[in-house]
Amino acid sequence: MKWTGAHYTDKPTVEVRTWIDAPPERVWALVCDIGLMPGMSEELRSVEWLDGATGPAVGARFLGRSKHPAFGEWATTSYVIEYEPGRVFAWAVQDPAEPSAVWRFRLHTGGGGTELSQWMQMGPGRSGLSVAIDRMPEKEQKIVFVRMREFEHNMTVTLEHIKRLAEAR
């Protein structure tokens, strides 16, 4: 795990990695199936492609619905901003020019398996966390820290699910 940033304006990031004893094609198929993601997440409730898209491609959009005990329920539209089959799948949440978050899966192959990483950047665009920071600016660093730790935990769980599915086939 690698974590950076202390303030929202720092655009903090977190990255989690795992080694999967499975060929990259198998891992890639799981990473690109956004319909699997709600079953791997404590927050994400549903995901659906928009505009007739059936899978990732640069410019494709999808709607995600989430729920969190402190933030309630919300929906966001994400835009695929990077897509290299077998290697990288990334999306920006809300406005691609000023996203509230950017998420990325990256695969590296070798040694008879696949290294999978999931990375995310908070901000620079406003998000639900911005509202909490606006209400308690003196607690910004703690708010950001706690949320980044939640992301780290959820990403670790997601990668564990993908690893289990890929290695079971």
Explain this structure.
- The structure is a single chain.
- The protein has 169 residues and is of the alpha+beta class.
- It has one domain (2-168): Alpha-D-Glucose-1,6-Bisphosphate, Chain A, domain 4.
- 27% of the residues lie in helices and 38% in strands.
- The chain has three helices and eight strands.
- The chain has an eight-stranded antiparallel sheet, with helices on one face.
- A hairpin with an 8-residue loop joins strand 1 (2-4) and strand 2.
- It is globular.
- The model has no long low-confidence stretch (mean pLDDT 92).
Mean pLDDT: 92
What string gives the helices and strands in order? EEHEEEEEEHH
What CATH calls the topology is: Alpha-D-Glucose-1,6-Bisphosphate, Chain A, domain 4
Could you say how many structural domains there are in total? 1
- CATH superfamily membership: START domain
Computed Rg? 16 Å
- What is the CATH first-level class name? Alpha Beta
Report the helical percentage.
25-40%
Q: What is the architecture at the second tier of CATH?
A: 2-Layer Sandwich
Structural class: alpha+beta
Shape: globular
Strand runs, count: 8
Distance between the termini: 27 Å
Pfam families: Polyketide_cyc2 (PF10604)
Protein name: SRPBCC family protein
